From TrEMBL:
Gene Ontology biological process terms from the UniProt entry: menaquinone biosynthetic process
PANTHER family xrefs: ADENINE DEAMINASE
UniProt keyword rRNA-binding present: no
Stated name of the protein: Aminodeoxyfutalosine deaminase
Organism: Streptomyces spinoverrucosus
Family that this chain belongs to: Belongs to the metallo-dependent hydrolases superfamily. Adenosine and AMP deaminases family.
Cofactor(s) required, per the database record: Zn(2+)
SUPFAM superfamilies hit by this protein: Metallo-dependent hydrolases (SSF51556)
Lineage: Bacteria, Bacillati, Actinomycetota, Actinomycetes, Kitasatosporales
Enzyme Commission code: 3.5.4.40
């Protein structure tokens, strides 16, 4: 069961504050955000799938023995996304769930290679995510932008395909802002992806690879030097290398921290052992994210509650965390200004109650 994953110990009134706090989310996966209801609905459409159709049974199905097991389960959910309509439904519903948590802006990581190789036509895939993005902004006020990531374990074929989809002027979607690298890190050295990141950066995309999630700080160094990372997905093992922490702090390179994800995938043993405190002590810019919330039995608000407990934050500390994410985002300056002002207004009103 996943109760142990969601931290019940943050004070109740801070949870109420968090629930209303305007937020931005930078590290959250498209398929990984499919709610139990959506996954169950898609599983019912495709009876050949091994994914449970009952949301209750899904909770056990989303309990992982290790990272490799997590990827196996993740891909079984990817297999459920078979038509452009599945893509549109999933994307719009993910935005609805975000809006319920006062997420004003999110950079959603999508792995187009995994869907196009399973038969979804490229242009139809792009149209589906763009339709959902525009509908979500109109209906919920939530601004979505896309990060396209390479599933690294699928190798250079996946890298080439993902780069083509991200840089072809006819195909690349209007909402695309960044380029990433996901999947297992073990046995997937980062330097081999340099040519692809060079092409993506030359096309105006921002570099945000996962690194240091299940491998050591050298993977984070590789992401910085070879892939010119502007932010690091997880970067959990950076705490093992004081020089790396100092570098991240000095160059204001944000970490996309996903506390419960690291516990669920067994990358970190317990929340109390999570290195997030080392990051803040070293002056590293920390952002809080949920990664694959329903799969980890959490959501963004719960991750802010975890951060409040681990970093001993009050309302102003939580507001600063939220503003870190806005500042580290690739939103335009006007959009950043609006959300930061909203965070300040909300926090002042809350404290003046
Ligand atoms: N915490 C995470 N840490 C890392 N990644 C995460 C995390 N959460 C979600 N992902 C996503 O999982 C995908 C994994 C897909 C993958 O490994 C793979 C391997 C072989 C073939 C294929 C295929 O499609 O044929 C795909 C990544 O693209 C990434 O976006
Ligand atoms: Zn991730």
């Amino acid at each position: 069961m996943t109760e142990h994953l969601v931290d019940p110990r943050a004070p109740r009134d801070l949870k109420a504050f968090i629930a209303g706090l305007p937020k931005a989310e930078l590290h959250v996966h498209h398929v990984g955000s499919a709610s139990p209801r959506i996954v169950a609905e898609l599983a019912a459409r495709h009876p050949d799938s091994k994914v449970p159709t009952d949301p209750e049974a899904l909770v056990d199905y989303f309990t992982f023995t290790d990272f490799a097991h997590f990827i196996e389960v993740y891909l079984s959910v990817v297999d459920l996304i078979r038509t452009p309509d599945d893509v549109r439904l999933l994307t719009y519903e993910v935005a609805r769930d975000m809006a319920r948590q006062q997420v004003r802006y999110a950079e959603l990581t999508i792995t187009p290679f995994s869907s196009t190789r399973r038969g979804i036509e490229e242009q139809a895939f792009m149209d589906a995510i763009e339709d959902a993005r525009k509908a979500a902004e109109a209906d919920f006020g939530t601004v979505l932008r896309w990060c396209f990531d390479i599933p690294g374990e699928a190798g250079l074929e996946a890298a080439e395909e993902t780069t083509r989809l991200a840089t072809d002027d006819k195909l690349r979607p209007e909402g695309l802002v960044s380029f990433g690298l996901g999947g297992p890190e073990i046995g997937v050295p980062r330097p081999q992806f340099k040519p692809y990141f060079d092409r993506a950066i030359a096309a105006g995309l921002r570099s945000v690879p996962h690194a240091g999630e299940t491998t050591g700080p050298e993977t984070v160094w590789d992401a910085l030097t070879h892939l010119r990372a502007e932010r690091i997905g997880h970067g959990t093992s950076s705490a093992q290398d004081p020089k790396l922490l100092a570098h991240l702090a000095e160059h204001r390179i944000p970490l996309e921290v996903c506390p419960t994800s690291n516990i669920a995938t067994r990358a970190v043993r317990t929340l109390d052992e999570h290195p997030i405190k080392e990051f803040t002590r070293a002056g590293v810019l920390v952002t809080i994210n949920s990664d694959d919330p329903p799969m980890f039995g959490t959501d963004l608000n719960s991750e802010y509650a975890v951060a409040a407990r681990l970093l001993d934050l009050d309302e102003r500390g939580l507001a600063d965390l939220a503003k870190n994410a806005v500042e580290a985002s690739f939103h335009d300056e006007a959009g950043k200004g609006r959300i930061k002002a909203e965070i300040d207004t909300y926090t002042s009103a809350w404290l003046a109650r």
